[in-house]
Amino acid sequence: MAMILGGILSLQAEISPEDIRQLQTRFQQAEESEERLRARIQKLETTIAELRSQLGEVRSVAASAGKDSVTQEQLKKVLDQLRDLDRRRQEDNEKVLQQIKRLADLPTAPPPSFDDPKPKGRKPSAEPSVGAGGNGGGAKSDLKSEPKADVPKPTLPADYEFYEHVVRDNQSVSQIINEYNKGYGLKVRLKHVLEANPKLRPERLVTGQKVRIPVVK
User: What is the pLDDT of residue 129?
Assistant: First the structure.
């Protein structure tokens, strides 16, 4: 069971929105084809019933009026039509069964998730706090005297919007970024994700881990 679940999760990670649309089109086409075949089978069965009724009438007339009233050729023709129609009905039944089997063998398309997530909120702006009190002037003096560290220039605004993504099995950061860029029309880069997730270690993603994907357009 664990192997099956792992395979399903891996398949979901590889399926793109375009794959989903193609699968949905294939499902629709297969269902329409199956409906046409079923309608044809029903029509053939109606025709067979009518021919059998006619054959019964012919035999009844032949039995009551004698063999000479109906030729063997006429009987043979009706029987041949019945056999041909029955053969075609069986062939159509086989086609329906094959169509159903193909539908069952198609991978199950996960429901599109690109319209569901919404930005979860905004990151509060982080301003360095300065201690209050009698020694406030001293604190300011200390700050000025310390050398400034090389801090990377932030690429995201302080109140940026973001999506919260739950990591699936065997997903990488690049796959997640590509999924959101394609699904939402974003322009997210690795540096944006790392800035939104300061403690994130891309090489150690864990299934079920939550990762912020900033909205960068």
Answer: 41
Cα separation, 78 vs 74, whole angstroms? 6
Tens digits of residue pLDDT in 16-65: 667 777 777 877 788 888 888 888 898 888 888 888 888 887 777 666 65
User: From its phi and psi, is residue 108 left (phi > 0), alpha (psi between -120 and 50) or beta?
Assistant: beta
Run means of pLDDT, 10 residues per run, the chain, 217 residues: 57 64 77 85 87 80 61 80 87 84 60 53 48 44 49 79 93 94 93 94 94 93
Entry pTM: 0.38
HEC assignment per residue over the chain:
CHHHHHHHHHHHHHCCHHHHHHHHHHHHHHHHHHHHHHHHHHHHHHHHHHHHHHHHHHHHHHHHHCHHHCCHHHHHHHHHHHHHHHHHHHHHHHHHHHHHHHHHHCCCCCCCCCCCCCCCEECCCCCCCCCCCCCHHHHHHHHHHCCCCCCCCCCCCCCCEEEEEECCCCCCHHHHHHHHHHHHCCCCCHHHHHHHCCCCCHHHCCCCCEEEEECCC
Contacts of residue 74, defined as CB under 8 A and 6 or more positions apart, other chains included, come to 58
Q: Which residues 6+ apart lie within 8 Å of 128 measured at CB?
A: none
Q: What distance in Å separates the CA atoms of residue 37 and residue 74, rounded to the nearest whole number?
A: 31
Cross-strand bridge partners of residue 166: 210
